[in-house]
From TrEMBL:
Residues 313-326 have a biased composition (Pro residues). Residues 293-352 are annotated as: Disordered. PANTHER family: VAST DOMAIN-CONTAINING PROTEIN. Residues 63-282 form the DUF7924 domain. This is DUF7924 domain-containing protein.
């Protein structure tokens, strides 16, 4: 069954800029260079070569069949045993209350509401509830008490704080553009969720890095890694952006090695600085949540996602990064590349 999706014109009306040329905020540019583009030393993984070898048979499959062949090699296995503390869920709905609101009644009337956000896969932190179902019990980044603090404030109860989502298409079927529009919608919901979380915790807008989300689109032949973030204009109106940091085909191994390195750097960051930041904010979030709603109540945050009823005061837009003219014309930002024979991956890499 084909999933519903929103065309780029509708997403643009909702202030979601797909495949944007908007400049990177300076803090996000630093994050890309210092975290996501880190070199991974050591021996290379066989998974990139396996993707190249499986491209031809995967091209004959429908969407679920192609996903079954390639997704475990490019992303992360659905089993929580693959990466300790991390879990991936297929086709899980995200709470649509975190979708951007229509900027005006006219937009909502003419375009209708955005469709239900549902990634083909969503990767986040393993919940203590699920970890306890395994024998022996699996390690998690969060305690049962911390999970309880987030009750009634999750994108999906089965997965905590998604860090990566993906949309997949077959080689012969829906266009890659459809996957891009779907992941733009999903990414905006995740960014808003993270923004609201930090807004409630600290009574300030989240930084672009705190609310950053990463997604992948793939149609068997092409892999694209996207970053999603938001900036609020002078009137407090959120603007959502989605921009590529890496695109490659599945025909050759070296670019796939680089794609997998970016995703492994993402997981390493998620299990270090990202989770530390989230957990540091959690007591503040919970105390303010109790003040807003009381224990056991559903918290429906409204922190300026474009609603006319929003009461959040205006916040200045993040300072954009202005690269030199010759770089400004090219996207995504390019990292320095070593010769293919020198690009290697660690023997103790994450088994993804």
């Amino acid at each position: 069954m084909k999933k519903k999706w929103d065309k780029q014109s509708k997403l643009a009306a909702y202030e979601i800029d797909v495949d944007t040329t908007h400049p990177w905020p300076q803090a996000l540019q630093r994050h890309i260079e210092q975290e996501l583009f880190k070199q991974i030393p050591g021996t290379r993984s066989p998974n990139a070569k396996k993707i190249v070898d499986l491209r031809r048979p995967a091209a004959l499959e429908n969407e679920p069949g192609a996903n079954r062949l390639l997704e475990p090699l490019l992303l992360f296995s659905n089993s929580p045993l693959a990466v300790p503390g991390i879990a991936s869920k297929p086709n899980h709905n995200l709470d649509r209350q975190f979708l951007p609101n229509a900027p005006s009644k006219i937009i909502e009337t003419e375009y209708g509401l955005l469709t239900q956000p549902q990634p083909d896969t969503a990767t986040g932190y393993l919940s203590p509830t699920e970890a306890g179902k395994y024998t022996p019990r699996l390690a998690t980044a969060f305690t049962k008490e911390e999970q309880a603090m987030l009750r009634h404030f999750t994108l999906n109860p089965g997965l905590l704080f998604p860090l990566l989502t993906s949309q997949w298409k077959p080689a012969n079927g829906e266009a890659h553009q459809v996957a891009m529009c779907q992941t733009a919608r999903d990414g905006a919901a995740v960014v808003n969720y993270l923004h609201d979380y930090y807004q409630i915790a600290y009574n300030r807008p989240a930084t672009v890095v705190e609310a950053l989300h990463v997604s992948v689109t793939c149609n068997v032949e092409i892999v694209n890694i996207w970053l999603h973030w938001r900036e609020d204009d002078g009137a407090g109106q959120p603007k959502h952006y989605m921009k590529s940091i890496h695109a490659c085909t599945t025909w050759t191994e070296p670019p796939l090695l680089e794609a997998r390195a970016i995703l492994k750097n993402l997981v390493r960051y998620a299990l270090d600085e990202r989770v530390a930041s989230i957990k540091a904010a959690l007591p503040h979030f919970y105390n303010n949540k109790l003040k807003m709603k009381g224990p056991g109540s559903r918290l429906k945050a409204n922190t300026g996602r474009g609603s006319a009823a929003s009461i959040r005061p205006p916040t200045p837009m993040s300072t954009p990064f202005s690269p030199p003219p010759q770089v400004r014309q090219s996207m995504p930002p390019q990292k320095k590349r070593r010769p293919a024979e020198e690009r290697v991956e660690s023997e103790d890499e994450l088994q993804v």
